[in-house]
Amino acid sequence: MKNITDNLINIYVPKNEIIFSPIGGVGQIGMNFYLYGTQGKWIIVDLGITFGNSEETPGIDIILPNPEFIKKNKKNLLGIIITHAHMDHIGAVGYLWPQLQCPVYATPFAAAVLKRNLKELKIKPKFLRTISLDSNFKLGPFEIDVISTTHSIPEPNALGIKTKFGNILHTGDWKIDPKPLVGRDFNQKKIKSFGDKGVLAIVSDSTNSNVEGHSGSEEKLRESLVKIIKKTSQRIAITSFASNLARLETFAHLANESGRVAALCGRSLWTMYKAALDTGYLKKIKPFLDEKEVMIYPRDQVLLICTGSQGEPRAALSRIANDIHQNIFLEPGDTVIFSSKVIPGNERAITKVQNELKEKNVNVITESEEFVHVSGHPHIEELKKMYNWIKPEIVIPVHGEYHHLKSNVEIARKCGVKKGLILKNGLLLKVAPGEPKVLGSVPTGKLMLDGKKIIPINEDAIKNRKKMLYNGAILISLVISKNNKIISKPIISSKGFFDDENIKNFEKSFISNYYNFVKELKNNQSIEILLKERITSFSQKFFRKALDMKPIIQIHIIRT
Predict the structure, then answer these.
(1) Contacts of 17 (CB under 8 A, 6+ apart)
(2) Nearest to residue 288, comparing CAs of 266, 311, 308?
(3) 476-481 — which CB contacts under 8 Å span 24+ positions?
(4) CATH code of the domain in which 442 resides
(5) How far apart are CA 481 and CA 555, in angstroms?
(6) Nearest-angstrom CA–CA distance, 408 and 181
(7) Angle, to 10 degrees, between the axis of helix 245-257 and the axis of helix 267-278?
(8) How do strand 446-450 and strand 437-441 relate by DSSP bridges?
(9) Phi, psi (5° rounding) for residue 152?
């Protein structure tokens, strides 16, 4: 019997019901993209990107969610609502908006960041609508409560989505920080008030659902970092997420407390800093210096704030570690502080950068050694508080890998939540009325940014890239006559091979075996296709035996 989730749905007009569909953001941390539908209309919550890596997607930096389904349904699309300004929630707007053509709603800081992104893409932000913090507005049959929370960026918001058929709380990324330092406090009163109205479902951040206790406060972290900086001599470099303005303010405070000057190293840091100034944040701290300006100061009077906390190869810290940064260098005895957590999937890249620094006898401090970071996502005790405050009937975990989603459901059930639904990207869920039901799946998947073009990720092409990365490639150009005789010596090019001797041996073996292939196939009308197949098979066997490698084989036959 065919499973209902096998039904592919391209066009769907929501009826007297509430529909929820994650297009991205489930089973992963990144690429957040969620659809809500009711009474003939749709809204999007967040439209983010994720980043490629050399192992999984070689040559691809930015990965986008596929908007195919809502693009086909865009005549019923009322708008995109942004929960906060992190790239995994906002980064795809500029790339995908031309396909969707709808208003985008964001609070002032998120709007400021988005404007800068759009400017880079040469898109005028006429469609951008700035909404107030802790406001309320209507979009067709939806009524939206914007509820201030706390996170690792200013102005994060949960969304209370009210419909005729029930209310849903979409948490966005959040934590409960009693002293966030920058931005508003967590609006506990409004969260509880929304819960008092009855909550059908909560779509819940799952990032730290397997971590005990509380996430911690930026205020307590500042106290710890001051102590570490004061006992550290020589030059200090510190890295964190560029969007964490509270952390950026803390770094400015550290510099002031320790008699150092602070400089920003990395484009994204300057982008966020300028967006902060545009919206009234960070105006009370001393202006940051440019990385060029800071080099005239003695080493013990410098605090470098660098991009690259996740080991990104093009970020400032990676370039510094590899001695290829044009302005900044570190010496033995200098210190680098990683004021950040390791995002799953980035372990190897981060370790690589840290090892490169240690080889230079640079001191490396991480959260494993000292209290240098607090997370922006709720730990177990904070999730319990949320579920006890709003008492939802259903929990739908998002923003996490499968084990995070599973842990989140288990926590919710211990708090009395009756139902936990772990979805996959692309499933179309009828939340209400009646029992929740998966209606089928909608087109989803990933797009990649290739230069200025957005194209679907071709899985075969990715497989070939990976194969070429680890096994190299052989290109054979063969000029033959009408009766299949070799006119001139074959041109055999190799990519990714270090041993030329094996290529020479292959060339000899190939020529001596070629006419055997021809003899076997001379009476076949499809000789050229079959000849390529035989040459490919022979080449693969040769390199498997000689080098234990499986290179990509490309054959060009030219007839004269």
Answers:
(1) 37, 38, 165, 430, 431, 432, 433
(2) 266
(3) 476/510, 476/535, 476/539, 476/553, 476/554, 476/555, 476/556, 477/556, 477/558, 478/535, 478/555, 478/556, 478/557, 478/558, 479/558, 479/559, 479/560, 480/557, 480/558, 480/559, 480/560, 481/559, 481/560
(4) 3.60.15.10
(5) 16
(6) 28
(7) 100
(8) unpaired
(9) -105, 30
Rounded to the nearest 5°, which phi and psi values hold at 444?
-145, -160
**Residue 388 structural domain:** 4-213+376-456
pLDDT for 533 equals 82
- Same domain for 443 and 463, yes or no, is no
User: Using CA atoms, how far apart are residues 170 and 396, in angstroms rounded to an integer?
Assistant: 9
Residues with Cβ < 8 Å from 303, sequence gap 6 or more? 229, 236, 237, 238, 251, 254, 255, 258, 260, 261, 262, 263
Angle between helices 108-120 and 267-278 (to 10 degrees): 130
Between the CA of residue 137 and those of 107, 142, 201, 220, 289, what are the distances in Å? 13, 9, 20, 36, 41
pLDDT in tens, 76-112: 999 999 999 999 999 999 999 999 999 999 999 999 9
Cα 276 to Cα 397: distance, rounded to the nearest angstrom? 31
* Spatial distance between the Cα atoms of 248 and 383, rounded to a whole number of angstroms: 27
Residue 371 lies in a domain: no
Enter the tokens of residue 451.
Answer: 């230069």
Percent of the chain with pLDDT over 90: 70
Question: Which residues are CB-contacts of 520 (< 8 A; sequence separation ≥ 6)?
Answer: 534
For position 504, what pLDDT does the model report? 78
Phi first, then psi, for residue 502 (nearest 5°) are -65, -35
More confident position, 475 or 364 = 364
For 198-220, b/e burial (b = at least 16 CB within 10 A) is ebbbbbbbbbbbbbeebbbbbee
DSSP string, 371-390: -----SS--HHHHHHHHHHH
Task: Please give the tally of structural domains in the chain.
Answer: 3
For 497, residues 6+ apart whose C-beta sits below 8 A from its C-beta are: 472, 503, 547, 551
What's the pLDDT band for 453 if we cut at 50, 70, 90? Answer: confident
Q: Under 8 Å CB-to-CB from 494, ≥6 apart: which residues? A: 472, 473, 474, 475, 503, 551
Q: What is the pLDDT of residues 168-201, one digit of tens each?
A: 999 999 999 998 999 999 999 999 999 999 999 9
**Side-chain half-sphere of 559: how many Cα atoms within 13 Å?**
5
73's tokens? 């349904």
Task: Give the number of other CB atoms < 10 A from CB of residue 391.
Answer: 14
What is the pTM assigned to this prediction?
Answer: 0.84
Which residue among 423, 456, 489 closes a domain? 456
The three-state DSSP-derived secondary structure of 153-192 is: CCCCEEEEEEECCEEEEECCCCECCCCCCCCCCCCHHHHH
Q: Across the chain, what does the average pLDDT equal? A: 90
Tokens of 329: 């260098």
Residues 72 and 175 in one domain: yes
